[in-house]
Design goal:
Chain A: InterPro entries: Aromatic_CoA_ox/epox, Ferritin-like, Ferritin-like_SF, PaaA, PaaA_PaaC. Chain A: One of its GO terms (biological process) is phenylacetate catabolic process. Chain A: This is 1,2-phenylacetyl-CoA epoxidase subunit A. Chain A: It holds the Pfam family PaaA_PaaC. The complex is a heterotrimer of chains A (336), B (95) and C (239). Chain A is mainly α and 336 residues long. In chain A, 65% of the residues lie in helices and 2% in strands. Chain A contains 13 helices and 2 strands. A two-stranded antiparallel ribbon of chain A has the order 1-2. In chain A, a hairpin with a 4-residue loop joins strand 1 (270-272) and strand 2. With 95 residues, chain B is α+β, with helices and mostly antiparallel strands. Chain B has a single domain (6-75), classed as Phenylacetic acid degradation B (Ubiquitin-like (UB roll)). Chain C has 239 residues and is mainly alpha-helical. Chain C is built from 9 helices and no strands. In chain C, helix 5 (86-109) crosses helix 7. Chain C starts with 6 loop residues before the first helix and ends in a 6-residue tail after the last helix. The mean pLDDT of chain C is 95. The chains are: A mainly alpha (336), B alpha+beta (95), C mainly alpha (239). Chains A and B meet through helix 1, helix 4, helix 7 and helix 13 of A and strand 1, strand 2, helix 1 and strand 3 of B.
Chain lengths: 336, 95, 239
């Protein structure tokens, strides 16, 4: 395989291959065999249209989540209560922009450009994770996002490092490696609050109360209601079901909450000796679907800020393109 | 508002001296200079590199998966290209 | 000469870095293109790192950042100016990073207490200046709109640039020489960007002084109110 995928030719090749040879069945067998053998599918390989579409949708949504996800945390950069915390938070929000870029770049290998995906985000035709439609009301929310939201994201993402589509899997390896600090900083932040003054402790508990349930919703609807799950599992885009991952996350969080000295807001949460797992209460799926539909506390605010940043930046992007057009040839590719 | 899509660049990073550049990912930039800066900011934030190449994605010619067999299979049946093909008496050194 | 750190100088340099870092941090989530989110944050993080070292030379970094009143801050008025549009941010970056590179190059070559910090920071600052220059060229020599915006930004901030070369107590540097170099550098970069070098005065008419004397502009009070609010709301708490 070529190490570098020339994305543009990839697109025409993929189309060309299908029309020129016409023997789709043979390609399909090769694709199925590769997936079955746990090999990676690479950009220029033939793939079923639906596989491509599913990946574009999922990677785009993931990328959008990183970009929108910057907002709730960036909300506290200017108010971070110590310089150490301020540096950590800035680095984290910056990572999220970087992760968005890795992911858009992975989606691009499937023939869909970033501009097109951003258009879809801005016009509401593609979604981002609903968790970012909740507000960050206090400093402790920065900690709760790190511990719970990033924790849930990592639980979701680690299996994606083995996803059947090569560029997505590679982006996820990079992201997971970089994100390991995100969750730890959140936990450490909450720990400092929990062990701090009475007000700080209350602030931490309040944040956990508000973020716990939405974090559990991040794993998506229950398995029997999940639209895309079965096919994605078959294609090895997804490796575990929503409920499996949710359970894993709950089991991880319980002892961590104890060490924090904070309570998870679920009276039904208890160890089940027989299942060797925790039982937990019922998730309010009405809230989930409502927030997804646009009725969350921040849906409008988040997308408006994103649209504005993009629109207000148009003249800058145009200027750079105009400059490049005038000066092409003056600056060749450089080596170092 | 116009739609001036910045072109795509492939990024290659040399992680340390003595190693070759490896494909790290891609990014958008209006020209080579900014592509190089953007690559530095995006792909070496944690000290992952000592040197970067950026290449316009459109400038890469890649072998096609359809040609995989004619391209790569003929190389698979020439074991005499590999040192393990040869038997050397025990005790012979530096060979 | 051993290290009795001149506190005035540590505060002047530290406050410059702290305040500009804070301003750049305000861009998070608002940058004109995703690649610039990453670039601006990198610069902000470098500056914050410098600020923490410098403030720690003068005392406790958090006490100094969060518990001083506005009049006790010694940063240049230039760095506290609002971000404005991207052109204004780039003009501020160009003016400041060029100055900072000249100053840190001198300090790195001296045997004073700031030499180790300056030796590290000068590399960071060279990159900041490079970033600002590349964007000055693109905005100046880009479209009609971008040239207008960039020219306006350069004019608007010009009156804050004289203060940079006011000698700072405790810093042994050739201020007049740096100023001449800074002006040459501006003439060069702005010229290549097809922009006019502003002609207005480079200092305000107020004889009371400016940032280095603790006199700041209106946007700064609001900035500090936001920055210090949480820390001050929980006296004695640790974070």
């Amino acid at each position: 395989m070529a190490t570098a995928a020339a994305h543009r030719t990839a697109r025409t090749d993929a189309d060309g291959a299908r029309t020129a040879v016409g023997d789709t069945a043979e390609y399909e067998r090769a694709f199925d065999a590769a997936v079955a053998a746990d090999e990676r599918i690479e950009p220029r390989d033939w793939m079923p249209d639906a596989y491509r579409a599913t990946l574009v949708r999922q990677i785009a949504q993931h990328a959008h989540s990183e970009i929108i996800g910057m907002q709730p945390e960036a909300n506290w950069i200017t108010r971070a209560p110590s310089l150490r915390r301020k540096a950590i938070l800035m680095a984290k929000v910056q990572d999220e922009a970087g992760h968005g870029l890795y992911l858009y770049s992975a989606a691009e290998t499937l023939g869909t450009g970033r501009d097109e995906l951003l258009d879809k985000l801005h016009s509401g035709r593609q979604k981002y994770s609903s968790i970012f439609n909740y507000p960050t009301l206090t400093w402790a929310d920065v900690g709760a996002i790190g511990w719970l939201v990033d924790g849930a994201a990592i639980t979701n993402q680690v299996p994606l490092c083995r996803c059947s589509y090569g560029p997505y899997a590679r982006a996820m390896v990079r992201i997971c490696k970089e994100e390991s600090f995100h969750q730890r900083q959140g936990y450490e932040l909450l720990l400092a609050l929990s062990k701090g003054t009475e007000e700080q402790h209350a602030m931490a508990q309040d944040a956990v109360n508000r973020w716990w349930w939405p974090s559990l919703m991040m794993f998506g609807p229950p398995d029997d209601e999940s639209q895309h799950s079965a096919q994605s599992m078959e294609w090895k885009i997804k490796r575990h079901s929503n409920d499996e991952l949710r359970q894993r996350f709950v089991d991880i969080c319980v002892p961590q909450a104890e060490s924090l000295g904070l309570t998870l807001p679920d009276p039904d949460l208890r160890w089940n000796e027989e299942r060797q797992q925790h039982d937990f209460g019922t998730i309010d799926w009405t809230e989930f679907w409502e927030v997804l539909k646009g009725n969350g506390p921040c849906n409008e605010q988040r997308i408006t800020q994103r649209r504005n940043a993009h629109a207000e930046g148009a003249w800058v992007r145009d200027a750079a393109a105009a400059y490049a057009a005038k000066h092409t040839g003056e600056t060749g590719a450089k080596q170092a | 508002m116009t739609n001036t899509d910045w072109p795509l660049w492939e990024v290659f990073v040399r992680s340390r001296r003595g190693l070759s550049h490896t494909h790290a990912g891609s990014l958008h930039a209006p020209d080579a200079e900014l592509a190089l800066r953007n690559a530095r900011d995006l792909y070496t934030r944690r000290g992952e590199g000592v040197s970067i190449w950026v290449v316009p994605a459109a400038a890469i010619t890649a072998s096609s998966p359809d040609e995989k067999d004619p391209f790569f299979e003929p190389a698979a049946d020439k074991p005499y290209r590999h040192p393990t093909f040869y038997e050397i008496p025990e005790g012979v050194k530096h060979l | 000469m051993t290290a009795t750190v001149p506190a005035t100088a540590a505060l002047a340099l530290g406050d410059d870095a702290l305040v500009l870092s804070h301003r750049l941090g305000e861009w998070a989530g608002h940058a004109p293109v995703l690649e610039e989110e990453v670039a601006l944050a990198n610069i902000a993080l470098d500056l914050l790192g410098q600020a923490r070292v410098l403030l720690s030379m003068a005392g406790d970094e958090d006490e100094l950042a969060y518990l001083r009143e506005e009049r006790a801050f010694r940063n240049l008025q230039l760095v506290e100016q609002s971000n404005g549009d991207f052109a204004q941010t780039i003009a501020r970056q160009l003016y400041f990073s060029t100055y900072q590179q000249l100053l840190y190059t001198e300090l790195a070559g001296s045997d004073g207490p700031f030499a180790p910090l300056a030796a590290k920071a000068v590399k960071e600052v060279a990159y900041h200046r490079d970033h600002a220059e590349l964007w000055t060229l693109r905005l100046g020599d880009g479209t009609e709109t971008s040239r207008e915006r960039m020219q306006r930004a350069c004019e608007a901030l010009w009156r804050f640039t004289g203060e940079m070369f006011q000698p700072v107590e405790g810093l042994d540097a050739d201020w007049a020489g740096m100023e001449a170099q800074w002006l040459r550098s501006m003439t060069d970069v702005l010229g290549r960007a097809t922009l006019a070098v502003p002609e207005g005065p480079r200092t305000g008419a107020w004889s009371a002084g400016a940032g280095r004397q603790g006199l700041h502009t209106e946007p700064f009070g609001r900035m500090l109110a936001e920055m210090q609010h949480l820390h001050r709301s929980h006296p004695g708490a640790s974070w």
